[in-house]
Design brief:
Layout lengths: L16 E3 H8 L3 H9 L9 E3 L5 E4 H9 L4
Antiparallel strand pairs: 1-3, 2-3
Amino acid sequence: MSAQPSTAAPLLYPAPYVTISLAATITGLTEKAIRRKIEEGKWLEGREYRRSPDGGIFISLKGFTQWVEKATV
């Protein structure tokens, strides 16, 4: 019997915090829009984003989801 190649797609689980660049890809927001929300205080540190020990900004996917879900329709 010959081995069949796997046809299953690999499962990817994003980290709970991602870079602004990856967050833009995942959320559909632009990097500029994400940075503006942080600068204007619409997103709060510890809720929608965190800073790494070296000062980098990482977006919380959970925080983003909660932010979207609390938006009024």
